[in-house]
Amino acid sequence: MIRIPVLTEKDMTPEQLRVYQKISGGVRKHPPVGPLVAAMHHPELAEVWSKMGEVLRFNSSLPERLREFTILISARFWDSPVEWFLHEPLARKAGLSHESIESLRNCNGKFAPADEQLVYDYATLLLGRHAVDDALYERARAHFGTTVLIELTALIGYYCMVSLTLNAHNFEVPQGTPNPLPPKP
After folding, report:
1. What is the DSSP letter of 11?
2. How far apart are CA 91 and CA 74, in angstroms?
3. Are 111 and 100 in contact (CB under 8 A)?
4. Which of 38, 50, 102, 180 is the least buried, fewest Cβ under 10 Å from its Cβ?
5. Residues 6+ apart with CB under 8 A from 49
6. For the whole prediction, is pTM greater than 0.85?
């Protein structure tokens, strides 16, 4: 059960309502969900959080397939079933293969597309060791370019924040939906 009260429009302060309406009418085209539900308790945070998410998800130079792949990497690293549940269909729609999704879900770590393997290696090294060695960094920069690599790094960090927020406040997948993430091997 979610640990924090979910605000409804009638419960919101004028500032919360302003931000809620801004998010609802923005690029997402729906009311706040997931971590933005939690952030609505602090409207200034919700507003900047939403804007950063818009930049990273909807205005990025990183191809959509790799953005969604990166989001699933962060969700899997933090074992965030809600984040996985929300983004697996988006990843499929963006062209991420069934094989890549299942490899990631099952912590296999082997991906046929070279760009996916590069993103996976970069993200998991950064998440696991808190840094990326020079050789991998240069390989990623040579492949993606500096701007995209900066976006990729920010996307990893952003979705760590999202996953941790969902986990901390005990957001759950819809009732009757099994946890999409098996225990890690």
Report:
1. G
2. 13
3. yes
4. 102
5. 35, 36, 39
6. yes
